[in-house]
Amino acid sequence: MSTLIFIPIVLVIAGIVFMIYVNKKHKTAKGEIDLNFERTKYDQYKQELLANDFSQLKHWMKGKAIDAFTSASVPQSTTSKVQEIVTDGLKNAALSTIGVKLRRVETDCFWVLSGNDLHFFTTNTVGELDEHIVFDNFRIEDAKLEYGGVLKSQLCVYSKSSEEYLPKTHVITFYIDGSPLSLEIHDRLNYITAPEDMLNLKKQLETRAKYQVVGERFLDILQNKVPHLKVA
Asked: Would you say the pTM of this structure is higher than 0.90?
């Protein structure tokens, strides 16, 4: 019998052994992270991420304070249609007549809370700034917040085992000239594994913890500033 027949069998067995090995390492590495302890390092992680992984936010804010920040997205219910909103970037002033179009894109979006203003950033496919929209105190006071569930990709393609790493969302709805505009707030920063870290499960989980610690505090800080945004 040709040895070629056994090659697929060997490959299948090797794949199963490798998966068992990876799952065991993942479980071990995960058990070494105490998320409650990691949360005590919020201030440290916030400054660390702003200085490194998300330094572009400091540049986009042009010296304005960053009280909190996290990832964002446009709800899928909004995405197939272009919605127009207007902004002039002035605090405590009505929005101007300049149209800003939000489209559903699979690129990074961010929220930054600075003083009484909410800044919403969208990026293009190479990570550069696309749109910068400012919601001032007037708009935030009129906004509503509700729980949006676990974020799923546009095609809803993901493994069940990875669901714990998907961000949970809250939907904040602003009213522009009487028309609702809904955007999503993530409970963690978007994490994409760097190629050099593909086999370093411990580093992946440590980074995910930092991204969660910093991202999940955004909503708490926002709700403390604007109590009516608390979800019952």
From this structure: no
